[in-house]
Amino acid sequence: KSTLIYDNFSNRWENSRQQYMYVESSDKIPPTFSNNVNFEVKTITVIPLKIKSDILFSPWQPHKLSYDFYYEVDNLNLRAKTSHGTGEPYVVTYLKPQIDLNSLRQKGNETLKGEERIRYLSYPATLLPERVKDLAYSITKDKKTLYDKVKAVEEYLRQYPYSLDVPPTPSDRDFVDYFLFDLKKGYCSYYATAMVIMLRTIGIPARYVVGFRMPLVPSSDGKYRITAANAHAWVEVYFDDYGWITFEPTPNYPSLEFPMSLSNNNHLNLENDMELQPDNGSRDSHSTVDKLQQSDNTETTSQEIAFFNDNKFNILRFGLILIVILVTTTSLYWWDRKKKINNLDNKFLAIYYYEKIVKYLAKKGLKKLDTETPLEYQKRVLGNGYIGFSEVTRIYNETVYGGKTPSKEEVGYLKEFIKELKKKRQLNLKRI
C-alpha cells in the first residue's frame, strides 16, 4: 500500500507530515487494528511492469515484505531501500481484517486522540460557508451511530451525477460549497473532498485518499493489472478498534458493503504466521515474468502492475480491495521509447502525451503542483494563454478517471499540442 493521504484542506489538499520507519525483511509492520479484531493473513506477488521506482505496492494492510523497506507511519506508504526494476517480483504478506456491520455500528472514534484527531478534523472554518456545515448536520441529525452518520453523507453524495465535463471552481468560491450547491456534478476528487469536509464539520475524523483502485475481476490469465486508468480518490473514516475504514461517495463506483455479522473465528497468531516462501503461485509468476519480458520486444508499452495471488484468495469473496499507489505529478513513470510509441493503444497514448505536455509546460514555468487536480492545473495554464489546454485536460480526465478510450482524433490533438509547444508559440487550437 503506497498511499498519498491528505489531512489539510484549503481549497486544495496537502499532507502536513511524513515520518518513515525502516523495517528489515525479517521484521513485521504491526497491525493498525486492535487485538479484538479477527483477521486473515494473505500473500500476494507483485510484478512491476515498465516501472523502475522505489515505490512498493500492497493491499491494505501490509504486514511484511520479502526484502528490507521503509514504511510511512501514518498511512503505511511503502518504499524500498533502492529502486527496483521492471519484472522484479516481490512477495507481500498482508492482513485482512474481518469487519461486520453489527460490530461497526457499535464503534465510535474516541481512541483517536490528541494531534492525530486534530489533524483529521481540521477544515478552513473561516472560509467555508456555513451552509455546508448546515447541510452535513441536516443529513446526519437523525442518525444514532457513527457508521450511520458517515453512510448517510456517502449516500447523499452518491445522488449527484458523475461527470468529467466540469468547469474550474470560480476563484472567489469555496471548492466544496460550489460543488454541493451550484455544480452538483463531478468526478471522484469532488465527491471525496466534499465528504471529508462535511464529516469534519460535524466532528467526525476523516481523510482524503488518492491512489489506484484494484479491479474486482482478474484478467483471463488470473492476474490483476493496475494501470493509470485505475486512478481514483476516496474517503477513509476512523473507527475504534478497526482504524481507518474506506467509504465510496463517487456514484459510478460500487460502495463498500459489510456483512451483518461474522462467524466466531479465532484470532490468528502473528508470531506464527506464514513465512515468505515461494509456493506454486510464486514459481508460476516467475515463468510469467519471463513471458512478459519476452513479449515486451513485440507488444505495446504500458504502465501496469501485475498481481499474482499466491494462496488463490478469491478477492470477490471479501468485497472491494483497494490497491493504492503514491500519486505524484507524474503518477507513473512513462518511458519515452520513440520506436514503440506508434504501437501504443489510444488510452496509453493519451496519458503518455499528457505527461509529455506537462513536462514541456514545466520548462515554461508552469510546473504542475503535486496537490493540484488536472482542472486546477488547467486554470493556471489557461491564464497564461494556452487556450487549447482545456481540451487536453478533458481528454486526459475522461481517459484516466472515466475509463474512456480516446479517439484517434483526440490523440492527434494531444500530439499536435506538443508540436505547437515545441515551436514555442502560444496555443489557440480549436476544439475537435
SSE blueprint:
Blueprint lengths: L3 E3 L1 E2 L3 E2 L5 E4 L15 E11 L3 E3 L6 E4 L3 E4 L5 E7 L5 E8 L3 H4 L9 H6 L10 H11 L5 H12 L17 H9 L4 H14 L4 E7 L11 E3 L4 E9 L3 E5 L32 H16 L8 E5 L29 H4 L4 H18 L10 H10 L5 H12 L7 H15 L10
Antiparallel strand pairs: 1-11, 2-3, 4-8, 5-10, 5-15, 6-9, 7-10, 8-9, 11-13, 12-15, 13-14
Helix pairs in contact: 4-6, 5-6, 9-11, 9-12, 10-11, 11-12
Care to describe what's here?
Helix 9 (about 345-365) runs parallel beside helix 12 and helix 11 crosses helix 12 (about 410-420). The protein is globular and about 65 Å long. Among the domains are: about 100-210, C8orf32 fold, CATH 3.10.620.30; about 340-420, no CATH class. About 30% of the residues lie in helices and about 20% in strands. Mean pLDDT is about 75; it is low at about 265-305, about 305-345 and about 425-430. A 5-stranded antiparallel β-sheet has the order 7-10-5-15-12, with helices on one face. It has helices at about 100-105, 115-120, 130-140, 145-155, 175-185, 190-200, 280-295, 340, 345-365, 375-385, 390-400, 410-420; strands at about 5, 10, 15, 20-25, 40-50, 55, 60-65, 70, 80-85, 90-95, 205-210, 225, 230-240, 245, 305-310. The longest helix is centred in the last third of the chain and has 18 residues, at about 345-365. A hairpin with a 3-residue loop joins strand 2 (about 10) and strand 3. With about 425 residues, the chain is an alpha+beta fold.
